[in-house]
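thought: fold this chain, then report.
action: predict
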Amino acid sequence: MKQINSCQTTATDVKLKKLNILPLKKQLDLNKTILIHKIYNNQTPTYLTEIITKAPSRYNSYKLIVPQPKLDLFKTSLSFSGSILWNNLPNDLKYNTSTKSFKKKLYSFFLNNYKTILIIL
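observation:
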């Protein structure tokens, strides 16, 4: 990246955004959210669909029930952190059932206005 954008005074996040590259943490969150989308829309094997719990569908809610962790280590699990990521997405992204268009819109969302979610309980 230094070879492409050699400006010394510009912050790394700004350089990455100019190049349309996500920082590693955001890329990991993006991949986790795509997997949750596939699980939510039953595009994965059944053993994966059992790790998330959909909230009751009153009022067209697309939320997931976040499991209560007993250990801090559980906060890094897919069922916990994936549910939090999914619940913090805008509803217009969640309604999209096509994985291809979801990925494009999600990448744009993460690139432009997503801030890393700190999981603090």
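thought: worth noting. Helices lie at 12-18, 24-40, 46-49, 78-87, 91-94, 99-113.
final: tokens above.
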